[in-house]
Amino acid sequence: MRVRAHPSPPPMRVLYNSKAGSAEGADVDALRTVPGVDLVDCDDPEATMRAAAEAALEGHDLVVAAGGDGTVHLVANGLMQAWSTAATRPALGILPLGTGNDLARTLAVPIGAHPFEALDALRRAERRAIDVIRVSHDGDDGEVTQYAINVCAGGFSGAVDEILTSEMKANWGPLAYLVGAMQALPDLADYDTRLAWDGGPEERVAAYNGVVANARTAGGGKPVAPRANPEDGLLDVVVIRADADLARLAARVLAGDYLDDDDVVFNRVSRLHVASTPGMWFNVDGELRTNAPITFEAVPGALRACVGPAYQAACEP
To answer: The whole model's pTM is what?
Structure first.
């Protein structure tokens, strides 16, 4: 009797941008020689999201973002455009080639491994259903909606990041964030901020900064939400009060956990609406987006992601 062979699954699709800084020095083209790898060079953000969505529709079981946090963000958004559940979407793999690699840190994906070894590890990796953040705000042509997979930050985070040069990071190492905060202090804005938690009444807070997190670090390993659990269906929200002692808080950030400080408002919610005067500019996974009123909503278990052997979803103090 003739046995009908089952069709082989489509090869692993690996998406990268050869023009991005994360591709410099990486032997990405050599990956074309790896059996079972379909390497696609995406030269702009729309192409990256489109390629991820197409991979899902073509039946790929694993789509790999080869690059930094920006590439991971785009691939995740592309996957969210295809199908409706984590079970029907391809799994997200990360080949961390950027400088920050922040989601990879939370997922315990090894950083610095040879690409061949990293892809082999992704094939064998455990896959966990993780949350994403739906981000909505008004735009020029109506409501704009996208997804964050790591961290959204507004307020003084942008001012500090602009100050932190490569030279400062090299000279000060882990103290660079503290030095940057002190240099940014004279220019920091005070935001009259209204926060609506889970659709409840607004709470008014004079704030310097706000972080809405699905994962734990931003800006290359700074633990901005050190207790975040990407599987709990909740957003970790951290707000720095406007009268905060930033030098002391920055030192506590570097020490690993600052959420119990009196200068911090910390909450876990499924939905948050933020409006402020003046408008607080928010970035979404590191990309500056809007200073309009903005809504963040957890989408539980939206994507399957490849995790490293040391991954732990919960990380309590």
So the answer is: 0.89
Residue 159, helix vs strand vs coil: helix
Q: Round to whole Å and give the CA distance between 91 and 45.
A: 20
Task: Report whether 286 contacts 202 (CB < 8 A).
Answer: no
143 noted as active-site residue = no
Which amino acid is it at 54? E
In angstroms, the CA 188 to CA 210 distance is: 13
The single residue of 46, 287, 297, 316 carrying the catalytic annotation is 287
Place of tokens 């994962």: 215
Sequence-distant (≥ 6) Cβ neighbours of residue 3 within 8 angstroms = none
**22 contacts: CB under 8 Å, gap ≥ 6:** 16, 67, 68, 70, 71, 97, 98, 99
Q: Which tens digits make up the pLDDT trace of 165-203?
A: 656 555 544 445 555 665 666 566 789 999 999 999 999
Among 317, 95, 111, smallest CA distance to 226 is for 317
In three-state form (DSSP H/G/I as H, E/B as E, the rest C), the secondary structure along 285-307 is: CCEEEECCCEEEEEEEEEEEEEE
Q: With beta carbons less than 8 A apart as the criterion, state whether 87 and 299 touch.
A: no
